[in-house]
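Archive entry: two folds, one per protein. Generate the first.
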Amino acid sequence: MNVPGDLKYTKEHEWVRVEGDHAYVGITDFAQGELGDIVYVEIETEGQQIAKDDVFGTVEAVKTVSDLYMPLSGTIVEFNEALNDEPEKVNEDPYGEGWMIKIKIDDTSELEELLDAETYQNAITS
């Protein structure tokens, strides 16, 4: 199971990569493995301010649809348009080309509530 040490994680299996006052968000390798083959990513909240823990979109796999939760309060400034044509990028490269949204962070203190790699790894293996 791939859990990069330089990212932050949520209990709902989203990852966060912070770059200044922005953050990239996607689902973890564990989450994509549990979902199976991803066939569609729906994000209709671009440009909207979303509160931490609120749903920002959905990911559809062959057998299920799962909600995506905001790891931090912020405004969605970009959706990874490549996922429209190639949603399988989430399965193939969840921490790279399979990123889902870029957000402008409202409150950086919320970062302290996210899990580090070791804590997340322990959560998914226990």
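Generate the second and append.
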Amino acid sequence: MGRLRLAVLAAGVLGCSGAGIHPPVIEPVSRSGPQLAEEVIASRQSLYRLSYDGGEGRVGLRVVLREALGERFQLTASDLAGRTVWGLDHRRDRVVLVDHRERRYCVTDPGFALDDLHPKELPLMALPRVLAGQLPVPAPADAQEEWTDAAGGRWRATYDDDEISGWLLSDDKGPAVWWTRQRNGGILSRRGGEQYRWTLIVSEEIRQALRDPVPAGFEEGVCDG
């Protein structure tokens, strides 16, 4: 699959970028897609209006986040005309990326990096927390407003009463990625100039098993650069 660039998605092309990470060996699956269905009951479904502004232009999307118990979640994005563009199914041991325009999918590991979908400084599994206006990673129990993680990243959090109003992740070169709450959403910025803005439209609890993210008839591709 080609490289994922959100600006290009607006023109109808979706791809996957490995950012130097080689995809694992995947067992053959049927042409209808990897069979991921299981008795997992989703706990929450949220709809966001999201815009991305980067080096290749600006694009607007509607994103649906479905979260299940444990570490599984699904993201589905559609353009402003309501056409599904791409999907993502994140599990503990693997990630499925679905290109609805090209009718293809690929399977990789959770360490995979998606260019422009989320800042590479953050793990993919942090996406639901970021969208919900939480810290991308839990702060240490003894941390207050500043701390250093195991990888050497320096974190700073600000609060408005008991609600987090912003956070900043810095490395040896200075601020790398930061987020500021804005109304019912937020603004996420990167050192390179990319910026993500989103607003929560509606969020509700649901009692429904997460479905197989790959529609019947989609062909398998490779998550490469």
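Annotation attached to the second fold: The chain has two helices and 13 strands. Helices lie at 6-9, 127-131.
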